[in-house]
Specification:
By secondary structure, this protein is mainly alpha-helical. The chain folds into two domains: about 60 residues, lambda repressor-like DNA-binding domains (434 Repressor (Amino-terminal Domain)); about 30 residues, no CATH class. The protein is built from six helices and no strands. The longest helix is centred in the C-terminal third of the chain and has 18 residues. It is elongated. The termini are far apart. The relative contact order is 0.13.
Length: about 110
Amino acid sequence: MFNNDKEFIGKTIQTMRKRANIKQSELAEKIGISEKHLSKIETGKNLPSLDNFFKMAEILKFNLEDFGINSIPHQNEYKQRLLKIAYSASDNEAKSYCEIIETLDKIMKGKK
């Protein structure tokens, strides 16, 4: 199910921006819109264009599941949870997660 409420979408974008530790002015500049327009998106007054939404997704590393869209139907619940964590992770976090999972994989398979 897709949550198309402007306020929900704006708040989710704002949360992802803050999680990425990016100022509103920086994100606006990176995607080529005014800070005022981004503010209106984050407060639910405007929706981003599809092009700007994809730019935000790339910069902030969010995915459609953060907006209530299940992009991988019939996927195991645990795999979905892992993917959500992976897609929302920073580069450093993703590296650490990979190392941990690879180590656990070796342990589970009895390899050294």
